[in-house]
Design goal:
With about 500 residues, this protein is an all-alpha fold. Helices cover about 65% and strands about 0% of the residues. The chain is built from 18 helices and three strands. A three-stranded antiparallel sheet has the order 1-2-3, with no helix packed on it. A hairpin with a 4-residue loop joins β2 and β3. α2 packs antiparallel against α3, α5 runs antiparallel to α6 and α12 runs antiparallel to α13.
Length: about 500
């Protein structure tokens, strides 16, 4: 007892030092930005390694090379890295201006992909544009455009203090239209992801709980109807509720995934040593890659992936809570919910907690369009992290760091609610038609009356009034632009008090 107590106290010392160092690092202005970049890189690298391992047998059987599917995934990873960099350089103001045109283009693409001869049909689903050297899935693009445009729309309505009808009417019909077009492909898994996007936008947009509960129940009923409407979907639901009825048929894939996880144990069989990838587990490199991670890297590998997604949740919500721009708050929170929700659904049906839906594990599963578009979304979130008040102050002071200097990223603009409100007022004034003014009949002007000194008293009164008016207008303009600006030079969020 006497010797264990000093040893235990000695062990607490380095632990407290490490915790203090980590807390000090998190308090740095660009910590959120570095976390987003690190998570994106780690998940992408993990996905490339596991896709190479899980697809090697299938690639060799199909093309005679173990690297064919890996080369495709690596190509889309490079494309996604380029999209990540472009998203970092686009100003938030330009992103908001282009949100609706890009969303409209994505809806048109969803319509075009359903037309025979334009859209490519694979395994009974018409989801892709086959461009020869690459295939593009427009439903993946629609996820990002819906998040960006919905955040812009709800942020504008929040500033205008609009009612609940104004929040629902433009966004919900557009979201349901996108979901309907994706159902026609058919693609239930992407429809679920779009439903998560729409639900998160309404939740963070301030929809009351009673209306939100009604929409959630309606969405659950619609999802159940869609799940039971097609033959393969009803078979998946039947296999989930009765897993032992057809173990060699419809329940084979889910059963083999659980065998792979059990075979890995704690430490795993070793990287590249999976048995399930030898055609024992269908789609091992795509929907069920988490099972291969569990088999080859064991419980520790699965815990690493789960830890990265948990860190992503913390980082995304941290960016949303520390931002002063309503658009960035809605965008970051909704995108974080979408990506995390998709990851949890994928892991849930791999371990047997949910029915198989076909949703991919973001940045890890094989799928070129999904990988590139998810990296684009990570780039937008990283751009939002650079707009935190402390980050903006540090970047304007020249503390941009080596990474930002290497990429030559632009310095983000300072957000001012007064300037944003003035910009919306100018946009409304331009959109509103000017009323026609009827010409009044001309009246004969009376000669001006002169004072004793020969001066015009009306001119003196007008000049004095104009001088007072210009002074008051300049004072009000200064107060309107300066009084509501956040105090950016603060060192930490806690020092801002109630400014958030």
């Amino acid at each position: 007892m006497t010797t264990a107590t000093p040893r235990r106290a000695a062990d607490r010392g380095p632990r407290r030092v490490r915790m203090a160092w980590f807390g000090a690092w998190l308090a740095r202005p660009l910590a959120s930005f570095h976390l987003v970049v690190a998570i994106a890189v780690l998940l992408t690298v993990t996905g490339l390694v596991m896709v190479l391992s899980a697809s090697s047998v299938e690639s060799y059987v199909g093309d005679g090379s173990v690297y064919s599917l890996f080369y495709t995934q690596a190509t889309f990873a490079v494309l996604g890295a380029l999209l990540f960099y472009i998203a970092l350089r686009v100003p938030m103001r330009v992103m908001r201006q282009l949100s609706f045109p890009v969303f409209a283009i994505s809806v048109v693409m969803l319509v075009l992909v359903l037309i025979p001869g334009i859209g490519s049909e694979v395994q009974g689903s018409r989801r892709w544009f086959d461009l020869g050297f690459v295939s593009v899935q427009p439903s993946e693009i629609a996820k990002v455009t819906l998040v960006v445009w919905g955040s812009h729309l709800l942020a504008s309505r929040q500033t205008e203090k609009a009612g609940y009808k104004d929040i629902l009417m433009p966004l919900v019909p557009a979201g349901l239209l996108v979901c309907f077009l994706v159902v026609l492909e058919p693609n239930l898994s992407t429809t679920i992801a779009l439903g998560i996007v729409l639900t998160s936008l309404l939740w963070f947009g301030g929809l009351p709980l009673r209306m939100f509960a009604t929409i959630a129940v309606s969405g659950g009923v619609a999802a159940a109807i869609l799940a039971l409407s097609a033959g393969y979907r009803s078979d998946r639901m039947r296999a989930f509720f009765n897993p032992g009825d057809d173990p060699q048929g419809i329940g084979y894939q889910a059963r083999q995934a659980q065998f792979s996880l059990a075979d890995g144990g704690i430490w795993g069989r070793g990287l590249g040593q999976s048995r399930a990838k030898w055609n024992y587990l269908p789609n091992a490199h795509n929907d069920f890659i988490f099972a291969i991670i569990g088999e080859e890297l064991g419980f520790l590998g699965c815990a690493l992936v789960l830890g990265l997604f948990a860190l992503f949740v913390y980082t995304g919500l941290r960016i949303a809570s520390r931002s002063v721009d309503p658009f960035i708050r809605l965008l970051t929170a909704s995108a974080t919910t979408w990506i995390t929700g998709q990851a949890l659904i994928n892991i849930g049906y791999v371990v047997g907690l949910l029915p198989v839906t076909g949703l991919q594990l973001p940045l890890v599963s094989a799928g070129g369009s999904s990988l590139a578009i998810t990296l684009l979304m990570f780039g937008i979130i990283a751009n939002a992290a650079r707009h935190e008040p402390e980050a903006v102050a540090a970047l304007h002071d020249g503390q941009d760091g080596r990474f930002s200097k290497l990429l030559r990223l632009p310095i983000p603009e300072i957000y001012s609610p007064a300037r944003a409100q003035a910009a919306r007022a100018r946009a409304k004034a331009k959109a509103k038609p000017k009323p026609k003014v009827k010409a009044s009949p001309q009246r004969r002007a009376l000669p001006p009356s002169r004072g004793r000194d020969g001066s015009d008293p009306r001119r003196a009164v007008d000049s004095d009034t104009a001088r007072r008016g210009s002074t008051s207008r300049s004072t009000e303009s200064w107060r309107g632009t300066r009084a509501w600006e956040p105090s950016y030079p603060t060192k930490h969020a806690r020092e801002r008090g109630n400014s958030r």
